[in-house]
Amino acid sequence: MDFEGLLAGGDWTVAARALLGLSDEEVAARLAGLAPIQRAQLFSLLPPRRWKAVFSALQPDHTVGR
């Protein structure tokens, strides 16, 4: 089953495991497409060592044009 299917089926733990093999930028791209509550729930299931990098990748780049 694909990532979106896992989320639709409510299988958050398996969906989080599916993200572990992706880069931080790919994880951020998947999370960015979710509703805020879904994003928070899935983010909380990621290992803490990935939080900072994924959170940083979710933030817009404010240095462009400087």
Automatic annotation (TrEMBL):
UniProt protein name: Magnesium transporter MgtE intracellular domain-containing protein
Organism of origin: Alkalilimnicola ehrlichii
